[in-house]
Design a protein that fits this description.
heterodimer; A: about 575 residues; alpha+beta; Beta-Lactamase; Heat Shock Protein 90; rod-shaped; B: about 150 residues; 6 helices; about 55% helix; globular
Chain lengths: ~575, ~150
């Protein structure tokens, strides 16, 4: 794993809250900007359309009722006129003849069987002539309600009544005054024919048509609400000329009208009310169906927008997350570089300041040694101790010198030579240089070199320093093992922009905790006094400076692998700065 | 060379004095200067074979001092001795005309070795110069007078 990617995975946790907030905001914004307008427009159009369609529907029902009422009115008027014509063109004497009346009866029923019977009644109410299926000859109608009305008004259409035949029927009666004597021509309208005329309107499964008189008695049989001659369970209301349409919603207290549409018109003579009734749901089924389809489509669109919004937002968040991680990594690299640079400056200062007193200590030591040489002392023990102490001063001062020189090398900036390097040969030379030291630790070098490797442009002195450092570390990693290998591999980079060099050892490995710090200056696991902790941070600085990259992988007790990536050519800015100097 | 005249320039007085003692005990004639300005004065007044010069000093630093020394047009060789072990500065000094450099702290024997090297270079230079002058005198005696007069 690359060192600077260690913290990458923690970023999503660190920013988790921010991302979920961002997700909520984005999704919310999309909903506000697209869903709400869509739904508002959709619902608005839907409501408007429903209103329009319903009013069209109501108009159509209204005109149907009006038309149907007109037909019934014409039927009654036509038959009244026929009777009137008969009564005023034929004399009572002529009509009394059964043959004549029979002939007229047949003529009237020639096309449609609309007249049940026909008869002539004298001014005393006596049936003086009769053609029909009932035995009504000589019946006296003087006491009946219609006789008086007919005698008075001249023409009369009755409501449905039972009469002598005990069946619901209604009559049309015409009165004529002939030679000072009144007589009546009366015809019974065929109830079946009349009913089929009235009820023959196709209005679905729930629709019904009926006539009702102003006393609330059904003149025809409604499909559901009752039977002919029965009193309706609801009020009829007063006579008026207009056609009215009423909608009875579910909240109507009268259960018989709930959820129904009812259109009505009054006939003038007789005053019967034509009622057309249908269930609301059936009447508006088409409108409701269209509405339902529109709303389904609308909400499906809304849901799909919502889903797309969520997916797009998720994708965007993942892109942002990726960018953040990259930025964070870059930041860490910059911080690492900055840290190294400032430590480098500090180190150079410290090294210089330490070198001076160190130089004085060494000169003082030399003066003492010089003086001891010329002095005459017989004390052998003192002489021995003196020499041992002087040697130790030298050893320790040199140790300090190594440290300060390493520090100075670490802080040193570019001032190097660019050369074309055959990396394979270069590595062979480095191996030869280190082979003797490795052999004493029981370590073998394995060089796995790619012969097709092209030469690269780089700084050999700095590269050598890096290679020696890495090999030294690898040898040191085998301290607790009696034998091992260091495998050096060269390959062309996957991106074809450079070479990849791997130093893999079989040493003790680096713990996960330490691997994060190995490139930090002064980090060492060696005992105090044996390591400066600068080797790898120098390697890191050098490789970065040469435009490359260094990464480490390690497993405890199995070994460590350092992978260096070096470009075929140096970065342009480095080249320029070197040219300038 | 025993008896060589050494000018030791270092702002660390104790170090300069110690070095002076050590070099004196090894047969050199040593004079110390604690900054660039007094070093130049000493060089103007007396003859030296080798100057041992510190790079990092307050006031006139080593590189400036070296440039000034070079301006004097002497045969004296300069050896850089510095705690500032930076290769860059040392290389710059050598470009300007220093004989070599040595990083502090160093062994007295190392220093003596370098001084000897510097001395022989200076000696070679002088000898070569002398030979050239003799050659010129032989070729054109009229110029000889001018040459020796200028030297004085």
């Amino acid at each position: 794993m690359k060192k600077h990617f260690f913290n990458g995975n923690n970023d999503s946790g660190k920013y988790g809250k921010t991302y979920s907030k961002l997700f909520r905001n984005f999704t919310g914004l999309t909903i506000v900007c697209s869903l709400i307008p869509l739904l508002l427009v959709g619902w608005g159009i839907n409501i408007h359309y429903t209103k329009f369609a319903k009013s069209r529907m109501i108009n159509s029902i209204q005109s149907r009722v009006e038309h149907h009422g007109e037909i019934i009115k014409l039927f009654l008027e036509e038959h009244s006129s026929k009777l009137k014509l008969l009564a005023f063109t034929q004399s009572k004497a002529y009509l009394r003849e059964p043959a004549h009346l029979q002939h007229i009866f047949e003529m009237m029923n020639r096309e449609h069987n609309v007249i049940t019977d026909i008869g002539v009644i004298d001014e005393n109410g006596r049936h003086i002539a009769y053609i029909g299926p009932y035995d009504l000859m000589d019946k006296n109608y003087f006491q009946t309600f219609w006789f008086a009305e007919a005698m008075e008004k001249g023409i009369y259409i009755s409501d449905m009544f039972m009469g002598f035949r005990k069946e619901p029927h209604f009559i049309i009666a015409v009165t004529r005054c002939e030679e000072g004597q009144k007589w009546i021509l009366r015809a019974t309208v065929n109830t079946q024919a009349f009913r089929s005329l009235v009820e023959n309107v196709k209005i679905g499964k729930t629709g019904e048509v009926y006539l009702i008189n102003k006393d609330g008695i059904f003149q025809t049989s409604p499909r559901f609400s009752g039977n002919i001659m029965e009193t309706a369970p609801f009020p009829t209301g007063p006579y008026h000329d207009d056609v009215t349409v009423n909608l009875f919603k579910g909240d109507n207290p009268d259960a018989s009208f709930s959820n129904q549409i009812m259109a009505e018109t009054w006939l003038p003579n007789p005053q019967w009310k034509l009622v057309v009734k249908q269930d609301y749901s059936e009447a508006f089924a088409d409108v409701n169906h269209a509405n339902f389809a529109t709303l389904i489509f609308l909400h499906l669109s809304a849901i799909s927008i919502l889903i797309v919004a969520v997916f797009i937002t998720k994708y965007m968040i993942s892109v942002i997350k990726k960018r953040d991680i990259q930025a964070e990594n870059l930041n860490q690299q910059l911080m690492q570089a900055g840290k190294l640079a400032s430590i480098g400056e500090l180190a150079a200062g410290v090294a210089h300041e330490i070198n001076n007193p160190l130089a004085i200590i060494l000169t003082e030591r030399q003066i003492l040694i010089d003086l001891f040489g010329v002095s005459k002392t017989d004390d052998a023990e003192f002489s021995e101790q003196f020499k041992a102490s002087m040697d130790q001063i030298d050893v320790q001062a040199l140790r300090c010198k190594t440290i300060t020189h390493n520090l100075l090398r670490f802080s040193r900036r570019t001032q190097s030579m660019i050369e074309t390097i055959d990396l394979n040969q270069f590595i062979q030379e480095v191996i030869e240089l280190m082979e003797r030291e490795a052999k004493t630790s029981g370590i073998k070098f394995i060089a796995d070199l790619d012969t097709s490797l092209p030469p690269i442009l780089s700084d050999p002195s700095q590269l050598q320093q890096v290679f020696l450092n890495l090999i030294n570390n690898a040898i040191h990693a085998h301290k607790e093992k009696s034998y091992g290998t260091i495998r050096i591999t060269t390959r062309i980079d996957e991106t074809k922009k450079g070479v990849q060099i791997t130093f893999a050892d079989t040493g003790s490995g680096i713990s996960q905790k330490n691997i994060e710090k190995i490139f930090d200056p002064f980090f060492t696991t060696k005992p105090v006094g044996q390591g400066t902790g600068l080797g790898l941070s120098i390697c890191y600085t050098i490789i970065k400076q040469l435009g490359g990259d260094i990464a480490v992988k390690s497993k405890i007790n199995e070994g460590t692998g350092f992978t260096l990536c070096l470009p075929f050519d140096l970065p342009a800015e480095l080249k320029e700065s070197m040219m300038a100097s | 060379m025993i008896g060589s005249r050494i000018l030791l320039v270092d702002d660390e007085i104790i170090f300069a004095n110690n070095m002076s003692k050590l070099l004196t005990s090894r047969g050199y004639r040593v004079i110390t200067a604690n900054n660039g300005e007094s070093a130049i004065r000493e060089l103007e007044e007396k003859d030296f074979d080798v100057v041992v010069l510190d790079l990092k000093m307050p006031g006139m630093d080593g590189i400036t001092t070296l440039k000034e020394i070079k301006k004097l047009g002497l045969f004296t060789e300069t050896l850089i001795l510095t705690g500032h072990g930076s290769v860059d500065t040392a290389l710059e000094a050598i470009k300007i005309g220093a004989y070599d450099y040595l990083a502090k702290p160093c062994e007295i024997n190392e220093l003596v070795e370098k001084i000897e090297g510097a001395w022989s270079k200076k000696d070679d230079g002088e000898k070569k110069d002398m030979q050239e002058k003799i050659q010129r005198v032989v070729e054109s005696p009229a110029d000889a007078f001018k040459l020796f007069k200028k030297k004085k």
